[in-house]
Structure formats: C-alpha cells, structure tokens
Amino acid sequence: MISIGDAPHEREALFRVTRGQDVLESARRRKCRTKAIKFMIQPSVEQLVHELEMLQKCLHQVVVHDDDLDLQFDENTLPNAAEKNMENIPDNGLNTAGKSVCA
User: Fold this and answer.
1) Residues facing 70 on adjacent strands
2) Is the pTM of the predicted complex or chain greater than 0.70?
3) Residue 35 binned pLDDT confidence (cut-offs 50, 70, 90)
C-alpha cells in the first residue's frame, strides 16, 4: 500500500490500517508493504514542483522497494532551503532517516 499526500492523517491512517496485517495473513500470502510519502503542508509553487519532480524520479524505486518506507519532504530538502544552506540537502531530496531510495 502506498500513500502519497500532504495531510498527516493520510499517513497515520495507512499505518493504522496495515499494522498487524503480517500477523493476520496466512503463509500463502505476501507481507503487506506499507509505504508513505508525505509532502509538505502548504509548500510554495517551487517546492511543490520539486516534490512532484522527485516523486516522478523515485516512484518506480518506491514501488519495487521490498520493505516498508516512510519518506517525508521538509523545508530542509526543498529548493528554498538550498539557497540558504546547501550542505544540509540530501542528494535524493527526500528525508528518509538515512535510507536512500532514489539515486
């Protein structure tokens, strides 16, 4: 299951719905992979364009990633912050808590 959006409740609902699914599934079914991509709330137009461009570049990797993911865009990973402090921006543009998904 993949959730893409800016509202925190979308992300929270995804994790609530999928929590415990592995325990409930039979041995014949595959593990449910929970993947959330959280956009910024009220980004600038430039930030929204950047979020969508990054999503377009990374969507295939997100889909085929064989584990859970919780990715979040924040002001430290988007263009306005880049002008202020380039060294804090990860190469992939996503805050993944140390997990690299997009090359």
Assistant:
1) 36
2) no
3) very high
Per-residue DSSP letters for the chain? -EEEES-HHHHHHHHHHHTTHHHHS-TTSPPPPPEEEEPPSS--HHHHHHHHHHHHHHHHHHHH-SS-EEEE--TTSSHHHHHH-GGGS-TTSSB-TT-----
The identity of residue 3, as a single letter, is: S
Q: Which of 74, 4, 69 lies closest to 32 in space, CA to CA?
A: 69
Task: Give the whole-angstrom CA distance, residue 21 versus residue 103.
Answer: 30
Task: Find the range with the poorest average confidence among 3-12, 14-23, 40-49, 79-88.
Answer: 79-88
